[in-house]
Amino acid sequence: MTTAVAAYAAPAAKAPLERTTIERREVGEFDVLIDIKYAGICHSDIHQAREGWGEAIFPMVPGHEIAGVVEAVGSGVTKFAVGDKVGVGCLVDSCRECENCEAGLEQYCLKGGVGTYNAIGKDGEPTYGGYAEKIVVDEAFTVRIPDGIALDEAAPLLCAGITTYSPLKHWNAGPGKKVAVVGLGGLGHMGVKLAHALGAEVTVLSQSLRKKDDGLKLGADHYYATSDEATFKELAGTFDLILSTVSAPLNLDAYLSLLKTDGAFVNVGAPEEPVALNLFSVIMGRKTLAGSGIGGIQETQEMLDFCAEHGLGAEIELIRADQINEAYERVLASDVRYRFVIDTSTI
After folding, report:
1. What is the distance between the terminal CA atoms of the chain, rounded to a whole angstrom?
2. In this predicted model, what pLDDT tens digit does every residue of 77-121 receive, in sequence order?
3. Which contacts qualify for 98-106: CB closer than 8 Å, 24 or more apart?
4. pTM of whole model > 0.90?
5. Around Cβ 214, how many Cβ atoms within 10 Å?
6. What does each C-alpha distance from 255 to 239, 266, 267 come to in angstroms?
7. How far apart are CA 241 and CA 217, in angstroms?
8. Each residue of 222-240: pLDDT tens digit?
9. Using CA atoms, how far apart are residues 129 and 256, in angstroms rounded to an integer?
10. Residue 196 and residue 202: Cα distance in Å, rounded?
């Protein structure tokens, strides 16, 4: 039997989100029913609700930074029990059979994973995300939130946390490595915290010095303004890894000049527009221009455990559901420090 729950949805592309009612599927054998307590607002929610990344499915209930409490479990569930604190990120299913899925890289499922929203599930029905009272998710795509992290600060870790943790780990950020984070926003602030906790020397590259004090408090060792041309001269050939968290197109040639030989520039922010590149920027210095998605389920759990061990959570501004549309505009204006989180009890 399906369950009707309140949610906030975009009825059409670029339309304001509004309160509505959606149906959640019956709890199956391996499903958990989660009473959502908090849902983070990711910039990708805005991209998709406004069709910035292409045609989307409407009505759309965004939200893939979900933190809540297990309310019920299916008869075959072994990982979770009623009352457990859990999270759901950007994926709710994958083929589970391909080479990548078997390697714990469900985010790169060769047959295409099933997004938490703006996707079609294996049942042929659209998926609806976390701007809602409850959600039903297979236990295989649910993670445990450790006691050391408050639920509201944990919600953004399900996207912003894992999206930065995964490339930092893959490109071996740690002691002796110089890491730069481009942008100090929802993703960037977690990138700084995580890179610092991993033991790297961390530099923030931001358009201005407006957030310098914040950046240093979050764990950055250095902070530079990219609007100052002297920055690119001073830092040429400095970094082992640059993590770009911004969703605006950058002058890639300028940023690639900041890498050491064999350094990597990794994009986790996804601009809506194409970007230009002179290939000599990677040829000279054997540099890598790369991208990274989220992380697999096992790595997401690893990230949460790491955050709990190091006392890390997102820096958040808690809002009511009726403030979602205002929050979207403030995200676009870079007017949030550093992640909006919806108190879903207000839906």
Report:
1. 23
2. 999 999 999 999 999 999 999 999 999 999 999 999 999 999 999
3. 103/296, 104/296, 104/297, 104/298, 104/299, 105/296, 106/141, 106/296, 106/297
4. yes
5. 18
6. 10, 11, 12
7. 21
8. 999 999 999 999 999 999 9
9. 36
10. 6
